[in-house]
């Protein structure tokens, strides 16, 4: 009897240790965020484009949560992104331009849209989900287009005024405050996502992604958890839209277009799914490639971008990710070796 009770306790301790190890920050992770913050000091003239890259990264993070960890294929994240963008803009016009409150409003708006449409995703496979999410985004696009008295229609929502952050830091034309603000929001959202995917809830999502029937057989509530992660991803997309509105002080129908969702998916094509840092790094790479090609060949840059994406998927998508993970494991092993040797030599 004692042995049968000791085995589950030992297994529970082993699982708890594995989860703690997953939550531990590595050397490369800390270096990544230091490098991400350094342009605020060393590249002040690039803050506008860097702010746009941060928005891409949050959008990619939103898609990665549902695709990389839950296996939900979506072409409709633009619906939550656009609703969050418009909600933040309208809130700043008719209520208050306080940016943090606008973020909360956008997150709630994106979550409500995602939750109300998530039940449609549970009725079919990947192809059905693609068509349903694409249709949802198209519906919201047309609603915003027809409600020109509220959204501005094709002319966009104008008259947005954002108050200084904390009453002190104004959103200047050079994007200095916008970049620091956007990067801080990204960091908070990333920490929460990182804790989530390394928790038992996150591992249950991976089980659902790999085999939903087996996950249901072992007692995992498949449908409620898919609804929960899709709602959370909708909140993330809404926040990304709000950041665009607040930093640009303008929003148009492009926020609800198919291109917005496609850009997020293309970012994940570069970085890979199921790895949170992939979307962040590939957002930078994608924007650099996009701007570089558009400056070299203004008429045919999309053609060359498509060629590069196809080549990257076929030949090199997993290699950068495997290299980063190998370096991270190597540095973690080196950092733990002195402690291990000390314990071995201890009496």
From TrEMBL:
Primary localization class, coarse: membrane
Species per Swiss-Prot/TrEMBL record: Rhizobium sophoriradicis
A GO cellular component entry from the record: plasma membrane
Source organism superkingdom: Bacteria
Membrane disposition: Multi-pass membrane protein
Membrane-spanning ranges: 25-43, 49-72, 79-97, 103-122, 178-197, 226-244, 265-289, 301-317
Coiled coil (UniProt feature): none
UniProt keywords, alphabetically: Cell membrane, Membrane, Transmembrane, Transmembrane helix
Keyword Transmembrane included in the entry's annotation: yes
Lineage: Bacteria, Pseudomonadati, Pseudomonadota, Alphaproteobacteria, Hyphomicrobiales
GO molecular function, one term: branched-chain amino acid transmembrane transporter activity
Cell compartments where the protein resides: Cell membrane
Protein's name according to its UniProt entry: Branched-chain amino acid ABC transporter permease
């Amino acid at each position: 009897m004692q042995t049968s009770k000791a085995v589950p306790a030992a297994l529970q301790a082993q699982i708890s240790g594995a989860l703690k190890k997953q939550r531990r920050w590595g050397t490369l992770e800390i270096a990544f965020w230091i490098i991400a913050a350094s342009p605020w000091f060393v590249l002040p003239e690039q803050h506008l484009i860097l702010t746009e890259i941060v928005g891409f990264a949050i959008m990619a993070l939103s898609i990665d949560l549902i695709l990389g960890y839950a296996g939900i294929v979506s072409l409709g994240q633009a619906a939550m992104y656009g609703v969050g963008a418009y909600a933040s803009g309208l809130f700043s016009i008719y209520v208050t331009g306080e940016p943090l409150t606008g973020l909360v409003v956008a997150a709630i708006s994106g979550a409500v849209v995602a939750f109300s449409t998530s039940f449609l995703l549970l009725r079919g496979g990947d192809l059905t989900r693609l068509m349903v999410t694409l249709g949802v985004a198209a519906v919201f696009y047309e609603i915003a287009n027809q409600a020109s008295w509220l959204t501005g229609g094709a002319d966009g929502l104008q008259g947005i005024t954002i108050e200084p952050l904390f009453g002190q830091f104004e959103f200047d034309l050079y994007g200095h405050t916008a970049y620091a603000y956007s990067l801080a929001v990204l960091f908070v959202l990333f920490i929460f996502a990182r804790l989530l995917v390394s928790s038992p809830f996150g591992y249950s999502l991976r089980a659902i992604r790999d085999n939903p029937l087996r996950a249901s057989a072992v007692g995992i509530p498949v449908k409620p958890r898919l609804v929960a992660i899709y709602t959370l991803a909708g909140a993330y997309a809404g926040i990304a839209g709000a950041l665009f509105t607040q930093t640009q002080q303008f929003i148009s129908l492009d926020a609800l277009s198919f291109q917005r969702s496609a850009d997020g998916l293309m970012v994940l094509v570069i970085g890979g799914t199921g790895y949170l840092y992939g979307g962040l790094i590939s957002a930078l790479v994608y924007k650099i490639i996009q701007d570089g090609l558009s400056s070299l060949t203004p008429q045919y840059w999309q053609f060359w971008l498509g060629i590069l994406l196809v080549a990257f998927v076929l030949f090199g998508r997993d290699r950068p990710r495997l290299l980063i993970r190998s370096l991270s494991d190597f540095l973690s092993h080196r950092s733990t070796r002195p402690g291990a040797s000390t314990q071995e030599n201890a009496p």
